TrEMBL record, chains A, B:
Residues forming coiled coils: none
EC numbers on record: 3.6.1.55
Keyword annotations: Hydrolase, Signal
Signal peptide: 1-20
The Nudix hydrolase domain, residue ranges: 11-146
Domain of life: Bacteria
GO molecular function: 8-oxo-7,8-dihydrodeoxyguanosine triphosphate pyrophosphatase activity
Name of the protein in its database record: 8-oxo-dGTP diphosphatase
PROSITE patterns tied to this protein: NUDIX
Record InterPro entries: NUDIX_hydrolase-like_dom_sf, NUDIX_hydrolase_dom, WH-like_DNA-bd_sf, WH_DNA-bd_sf, WHD_NrtR
Highest classification ranks of the organism: Bacteria, Bacillati, Actinomycetota, Actinomycetes, Micrococcales
Pfam families for this protein: NUDIX (PF00293), WHD_NrtR (PF21906)
Length: 252, 252
DNA sequence: TCAAAAGTGTTGGAAGTACACCCATGT
DNA sequence: ACATGGGTGTACTTCCAACACTTTTGA
């Protein structure tokens, strides 16, 4: 970074791939994402990832957060940087470099999205032709989501603070698109120390009442190494619970 | 990316963390990296990662490659994007966003670096106070290198085209900083299908001549998912062998 | 009492770890 | 012959996948 890089003519933007679980045509939960319709050239009327320019006074992540709120009114429970896309030909006219984030939101949160003419949910596996290189970006984000689901603990970012093991398993199954053995899944989760029973059970179901679990604090959800502090999961926001230090931006 | 982001005042730069194996004070191989001395403010005279502005006509990776060649005359065998750093306060004066890459080079290549007053190798584990947030960046790059070494096949990027199993194990041991069982290491490598014997052996050693291996083609070294084509390892450059399509930039 | 989901137990195989042991070479 | 690293064999453990089986509820 020696020279005071003028970089005139390069536009710096932030985009986000937002994932939520919603029922598909068959009624089973699967991965969806919201897209916005472009209202100007290039790619007028094509669907695209929500995004926008980086403000001078904002960090990249703060930019992504603000933009998400403005364009989709979503506040993700999980937000992580995905990749920087900067090929010269990704936009036909000017030169764009996009720092792309990916986010997870809960179903309740997802349903709050204002479904106007210009924002719509799409199943992540059957997208139309998107603007720019956004098809590739989504594909990569999906790959990261699925890869990370297998070795990390991000699944609960799709759920509320309390959940049953069947719900948690449902998240895994929806993302990985394969059935999981309930018995083995239970043992893996329990032995990992990631979850702990709340003591409550869900009453009123048609069958044996399942125990409720919560994520055990103190356990990192997604090991990002020295950048761990950057990966922030919003504290479960009960109306009564004050939010504890939501975004500590210090480096370690 | 809807608005034509002016982003005036934000400087876009590319930096690279370059790793090579060199003998440390005790004579054992360990991880080193070259740094350049800053010749202007801010952080005048402090050591920093090599880097520079992104040219309008270059992709991010091409920018990193060119800059590496200009500042250190290095051509890495492995180059991958690490992270985009863009906190508002990382540079005291202007606003910098740095797309950081990490690279691996072979020892022979590393020794060719012009060791002037302004370029010097440092042991990766004992760095001075660097310019900007470069200490954090190196720490993260080291974490990625060590993590990836355990589940991927990047080790041979530190070696030539042919190598013995002891050499390959030495790379792992140097990076992971722990001894590995030669017998088990051999079996893991052989059963993974990543390497194949060339049929030759190393003669002239003091002991039993070890077999030489090469990396089996067709096996991906580092699974980057849909972005695989972006991770490019230079073909082993025999003087006689023409370089085959060194940088295919297409997306998949 | 039956269906269905919650939860437990048991088994077999794959892969990792530790370590004993043989092989081939230069000195 | 012997020291040394190259290379093989083997027992032990740990983890994971499969699946039989018991428990608890609503209907």
């Amino acid at each position: 970074m020696p020279a005071a890089a003028a970089a005139a003519g390069i536009c710096l933007a932030v985009s986000t791939v937002i994932f939520a679980l919603r029922p598909n045509a068959a009624g089973e939960p699967s991965v969806w994402l919201p897209l916005v319709r472009r209202i100007r050239e290039p790619f007028l009327d094509r669907w695209a990832l929500p995004g926008g320019p980086v403000a001078l006074s904002e960090s990249l992540e703060a930019s992504a957060r603000r933009n998400l709120l403005e364009t989709t009114s979503l506040q993700p429970t999980y937000l992580e940087q995905l990749y920087a896309f900067g090929d010269v030909d990704r936009s036909p006219d000017s030169r764009f470099v996009s720092i792309v984030y990916w986010a997870l939101v809960r179903p309740e949160e997802a349903e709050r999205v204002s479904l106007g003419e210009n924002v719509r949910w799409f199943p992540a596996d059957e997208l139309p032709d998107l603007a720019f290189d956004h098809n590739l970006i989504v594909e990569y984000a999906l790959w990261r989501l699925r890869t990370k689901m297998e070795y990390s603990r991000i699944a609960h970012a799709f759920l509320g603070e309390q959940f049953t093991l069947a719900e948690l398993r449902g998240v895994h199954e929806a993302v990985l698109r394969k059935p999981l053995d309930p018995a083995n899944f239970r043992r893996q989760m329990e032995s990992s120390g990631a979850i702990e029973p709340t003591g409550d059970v869900v009453v009123g179901g048609r069958h044996r009442p399942p125990k409720l679990y919560r994520y055990a604090g103190g356990v990192e959800l997604a090991d990002a190494g020295p950048l761990t502090a950057r990966v922030v999961v919003a504290a479960a926001q009960h109306p009564s619970t004050p939010i504890a230090a939501p975004t500590q931006e210090d480096h370690r």
